[in-house]
């Protein structure tokens, strides 16, 4: 079943940058491109972040990053030259841990080894759900099959599958690679269950980021390279959504997109920040 996102207001394409009081930014494909050797900052993005830091407009990095802790993620961005701390980042792992505690869930974890310490306070004995994150090369057949059999061991009505993100793919170096959402969809199909996304474009995840910004949702803009999770997901909640032509953006798919009309397109984060600061 397709999910269609619609713009909540009929606005001129350039009006997205007017009256903005808060900014959410995707990271991979917007600030930097990931890669086998650590990736590289996208041209102009380091200065763009610094200009936002010194402006009156608050921002948060709203990422589905689930291969490392917030502290390590912030350290990696700092190494690339960004003036970023872990407090600037909203990502799914802490939200997922909170949900597991609230719902008294015991997960079978299909996550990257580097984030396992984040789940240290959670019991994994006799699992009653499966939690997935971006495992990169750890998405092996045996790992997927173990998660599959864990779900099958539950009665159909009790099968709970959580995915820390719903993306189909992202850019890694020069290549596009499958994201966690694609693997979660495979388990969803095989086990006749419905995955719950703890990350973009989930409403609760976006609501958390908006609360941290301290602004009304209609006064916020989401800037990202994923036209579905970033742009469409934000628009569905009443935010403005802006597509960057960096990262995994592909003109043949994204401009125009068959289902989603961004409030604006920009060549990169630097252009977006130029427009924001000159109109607010």
UniProtKB/TrEMBL annotation:
Cofactor(s) annotated in UniProt:
Mg(2+)
Q: Which InterPro entries match?
A: HAD-like_sf, HAD-SF_hydro_IIA, HAD_sf, LHPP/HDHD2
GO terms for molecular function, please?
A: inorganic diphosphate phosphatase activity; metal ion binding; phosphatase activity
Pfam families, per the entry:
Hydrolase_6, Hydrolase_like
Q: Where in the cell is it found?
A: Cytoplasm; Nucleus
- Keyword hit for Nucleus: yes
Specify the superkingdom.
Answer: Eukaryota
UniProt key word Nucleus: yes
Reaction catalysis annotation: diphosphate + H2O = 2 phosphate + H(+)
The positions making up the signal sequence are none
One GO cellular component term: cytosol
> What Gene3D superfamilies is this protein classified in?
HAD superfamily/HAD-like
According to its UniProt record, the EC number is: 3.6.1.1
Q: Which UniProt keywords apply?
A: Cytoplasm, Hydrolase, Magnesium, Metal-binding, Nucleus
What family is reported? Answer: Belongs to the HAD-like hydrolase superfamily.
Q: What is the annotated role of this protein in its UniProt record?
A: Phosphatase that hydrolyzes imidodiphosphate, 3-phosphohistidine and 6-phospholysine. Has broad substrate specificity and can also hydrolyze inorganic diphosphate, but with lower efficiency.
Q: What is this protein called?
A: Phospholysine phosphohistidine inorganic pyrophosphate phosphatase
């Amino acid at each position: 079943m397709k999910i269609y996102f619609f713009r909540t207001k009929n606005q001129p394409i350039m009006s997205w940058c007017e009256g903005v009081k808060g900014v959410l930014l995707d990271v991979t494909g917007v600030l930097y491109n990931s890669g086998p050797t650590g990736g590289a900052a996208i041209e102009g993005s380091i200065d763009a972040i610094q200009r936002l830091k010194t402006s009156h407009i608050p921002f948060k990095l709203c990422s589905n990053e689930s291969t490392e802790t917030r502290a390590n993620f912030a350290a990696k961005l700092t190494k690339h030259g960004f003036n970023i701390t872990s407090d600037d980042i909203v990502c799914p792992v802490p939200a997922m841990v909170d949900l597991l505690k609230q719902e008294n869930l015991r997960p079978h974890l299909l996550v990257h080894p580097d984030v396992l310490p984040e789940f240290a306070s959670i019991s994994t004995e006799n699992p009653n759900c499966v939690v997935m994150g971006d495992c990169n090369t750890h998405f092996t057949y045996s790992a997927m099959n173990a998660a599959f059999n864990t779900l099958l061991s539950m009665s159909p009505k009790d099968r709970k599958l959580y995915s820390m993100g719903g993306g189909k793919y992202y850019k890694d170096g020069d290549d596009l690679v499958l994201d966690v959402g694609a693997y979660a969809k495979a388990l969803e199909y095989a086990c006749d269950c419905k995955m719950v996304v703890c990350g973009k474009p989930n409403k609760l995840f976006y609501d958390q980021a908006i609360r941290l910004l301290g602004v009304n949702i209609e006064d916020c803009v989401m800037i990202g390279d994923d036209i579905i999770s970033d742009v469409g997901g934000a628009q569905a909640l009443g935010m403005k959504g802006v597509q960057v032509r960096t990262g995994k953006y592909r003109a043949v798919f994204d401009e125009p997109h068959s289902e989603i009309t961004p409030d604006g397109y920009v060549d990169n984060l630097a252009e977006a920040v130029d427009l924001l600061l000159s109109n607010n």
